[in-house]
Amino acid sequence: MSRNSSRCSNSSSSGGDKNDDDVLEGEEPGAVYDGSIVVQSKPFNAITTFLQPPTEGDKADSGSVVSDDVLTDDEKNGGVSPELMVNEVPEFDDDWRSASWKKQKKHVFIMSYAGKPIYTRYGDEDQQAALMGVLQTLVMYFSHMAEPRDTLLCSCAGGHKFVFLGRDPLILVLASHTDASQNQLTMELMYVYYQIISTLTAKRIRNIFEKHKNYDLRRMLSGAERQINNLLDATEHDPCFFLGAVRCLPLELSVRDTIAQAMAQFSKVKDLVFSILIAHNQLVMYIRLKNYALHPIEIHLILNLLVASESLKTSETWTPICLPLFEPNGFVYAHISYLDETCNICLLMITVNENLFHTLSNCRRLIAEKLTHFGCLKAIQGSAKENKSQYKASDVGIPEIHHFLYKTKSASLLTSPMYEAPYSSQSEQDRLLSLYQYVHQRLHNSRLPVRLLFHVGKSEALLGRVTSGFELYIAFTPFVSKGAAVNAMDKLLRWIKKEEDRLFIRNSPTI
Hints:
511 residues
């Protein structure tokens, strides 16, 4: 729902009258027992600063996992065969002046600093070359010609918001006709950029354009368009992305502990860094090498790889992958396999050794045998089949609550109930997600951040709460008062605390 339709919006500063301000990271409901499961999601500015255009010193080999100095013949030639230049988007006209193209609420464009088209969300890049040229000119004007020189980040025109992200040698632009904030839209572009780095590595892209500034990168990304498209779809429908969290599969503590023991026992292999079990696109268990952890962004990229690549379900797969916040300049290697016939339970083992396929294949066999023997796979399959892995807002026992999102900061894990009335349709779910994003943007506003925000609209009231230990967003019935909403929030926190062993991964063994 648009913020313009709200009846009132009240906020209070961090000095609220509730004692949950005292909940510190590591003490919140769902906190891990010992150490982080994943790297805590960083503030927006910290993430966007991570991959600034490299200096000359940075361009030297920084000890990447796998050296990537040699260009292939295709990279040296810089040519692209015509059949590889066109993205397959048959449902939309290629002409960017068409009505079907214009009606889309978001467009994403990627081009090189030389203005060479690389990707467009809808249509064909060649048909939109002139448009991309205009966007590239705007970026280059502010960075090279304007006085004083500056970086173009955002421009608003005609009800549209244009967000720019420059990562030399790439320029990414998102045109939006939605209520999403600049920071939220920029984060979507960061995900797209990281997806490209995950496919090619930052060093490889840098080397290509240092030698051929007009190189057409589309051939190198042929086949990756599906992953980028799927990632953009996910950012529009999944709150995990703007919250910087990973969804955890609810599971009984005894089952999760057995899974952890089995994975830890058979993951003690030299050069194995991470071992991850995923079911129904949710995290089940995560084993890691001591002192190493994955960022939520990297786990989202892994989940996106699994969702967008049906071929991975046919057999055990060995594939290189770049983890852009772990090592942006080189590849690690992933052994990917599914442990059930329905291909819903996936085991992914990541190593820095490109010769460990057969060793990890044997580890996979031993882990699968133990999980089968103790009934863990059956427990995961049964809970999903009977929908027990998800819970309803009504299970909490607070009638005023329609839905909620809860993120524990110490582990960057998210839990939320399944959608039910009045959010049964996709349009209603998207509308609720837009409201969550609005409250999130208000709470994290860099100019005027607040800890508690109560927002009332036509169809529901929302309460947003941020402490050093957790973030909580709740959708209530539309006539609930602020006092009743705060009381319901306290009851919800007590329920999450009671169920934390089932809802979250509390203990992740290291190897």
